Amino acid sequence: MNAIATNKDNKDNKDQTDKAETTDKPWEKLHELIAGAGTEEILAFFDLLGAAETARTISRIPPDDQIRLFSLLTPADAADIIEEISDTQAADLIEDLPPEMAAAILEELDSDHVVDVLGEISDHRAEAILDEMDSEDAREARQFLEYPGDSAGGLMVSEFLAYPGNLRVSDILKDLEVNRESYADYNVQYLYVTETGNRLAGVLRMHDLLFPSQNAYLRDLMIRNPLKVSVDAPLETLRDFFEEHRLFGVPVVDADGQMLGVVLPEAVEEASQERSVRQFLGFSGIVGGEEFRSMPLLVRSGRRLSWLSLNIVLNIIAASVIAMYQDTLSAVIALAVFLPMVSDMSGCSGNQAVAVSMRELSLGLVRPNELIRVLIKEAGLGLINGAALGLLLGGLAFLWKGNLYLGLVVGGALAVNTVVAVSLGGLLPLFLKRLKMDPALVSSPLLTTVTDMCGFFFVLSFATAVMAKISGV
Predict the structure, then answer these.
(1) Residue 133: Cβ within 10 Å count
(2) What is the DSSP letter of 168?
(3) DSSP 364
(4) Torsions phi, psi of 368, nearest 5?
(5) What is the CA radius of gyration of the chain?
(6) How confident is residue 329, by pLDDT bands cut at 50, 70 and 90?
(7) What is the mean pLDDT of residues 234-255?
(8) d(Cα 61, Cα 30) in Å, to the nearest integer?
(9) How many whole angstroms from its chain centre is CA 413?
């Protein structure tokens, strides 16, 4: 008995050691498995990894190993791995595979995931993959790709169950039995009832199907006039819908009431998180989508330089204002201390206004054409905050140098620049939205440069006007 227990303990210890070795540097283990192991060993290896470790491991192996890995797996097994990683990483992997292999893998994914991955791939490469896919799957994917990615059409899945209302419960149960393997991967919480032209007529909960008489017609059991969303409904509308209605999914219809798909709440949550990531990257100056260190060096460099290069031009413009007033700055050295303070504090005030406008746009509380309303609201707030901040900074300047005019110059410049900053910060996201540009990408960096330029101008121009009173300070 003790020997058996000892052997079991040794086996458990060995299993834990193997798992520790697998998770320490799993990409090295995967490289070895790709080189000489079979499919079963590779799948067993991935069973030990979570989603995050799978993504990290795949990203650390060379491109040749990635291609070799997917060639060893069945399309279904490869699709299981693709589902564990981000759309951007999945797109990079799929794009490097032969089109026929990529097509076979994508056909195993849910329709919304297929569209997400293809949307990240270059157009010509995506078309080559679509040409290799089943004609019906390819037609559906092309249709879905026409919708914005963060709309109901871009987020919906086409895997749902819909039946005519003149069928009986027994007909549906028979269909479910015959096609149980095909329907096993569907997210089936509701059955949808359609009429002529595939127009949505009603919905049934699974409960409504299991307990009535098998001779009952669907049209007599269905919930009529069910909740639904338009195919072009934006992400904000979908998010509000699921916050108000705790449903497992909502049908998507076109202008004629034809049912096109179903949006699941988890898809909306994921899209909201992705938008937050894009906005964060935009504020940080990362353009062109997500960036991973596993990407090619030149691609990463280009994505960063595209904004940094433009930023150089904007900063040269701001610096030229100082050059225009270099005599004033040389005569009043104390101004050099306050220039960055005025621009930085104004920039912070402006970024607060940007954040409020971005939030109101996302919630639908303000529209891009409401520029005058936003200007009035922000200008009033800017006057109050500008006066308070100007008095504070001006008072400090007076206490430091004992010169009232220096305090007026610095405080006045900060007050005026704060009004400019919050007004511009409130308007920029709306204006950029009207131009079909991403407000998150441009608003904050552009605002920072403009407030710097205006802050320098106000301080130095005000100082020049009272040069005789502050010269030598």
Answers:
(1) 22
(2) B
(3) T
(4) -60, -20
(5) 30
(6) confident
(7) 92
(8) 8
(9) 38
CB atoms within 10 A of CB 348: 15
- Provide the edge-to-edge strand list for the sheet that holds 229-230: 229-230, 250-253, 259-263
Residue in the structure block whose two tokens are 């225009």? 324
**Lookup result for tokens 């998770």:** 23
197: DSSP letter: G
Measured over the CA atoms of residue 211, residue 216, residue 217 and residue 220, the dihedral's sign is negative
Residue whose structure tokens are 């914005």: 148
Tokens representing residue 153 in the block: 């059409």
Amino acid code (one letter) for 86: S
Give the chain's length: 473
Helix (H, G, I), strand (E, B) or coil at 267: helix
Q: Which helix (H) or strand (E) holds 254?
A: none
Q: Tell me how far the alpha carbon of residue 14 is from its chain's centroid.
A: 42
What would the pLDDT profile of 374-395 be if each residue is shown by its tens digit?
A: 999 999 999 999 999 999 999 9
C-alpha to C-alpha distance for 206 and 187, rounded to whole angstroms: 12
Token output for 467:
């040069």
Single-letter amino acid code for the residue at 181: E
**What does 91-112 look like in DSSP terms, one character per residue?**
HHHHHHS-HHHHHHHHTTS-HH
In whole angstroms, what is the distance from residue 456 CA to residue 462 CA?
A: 10
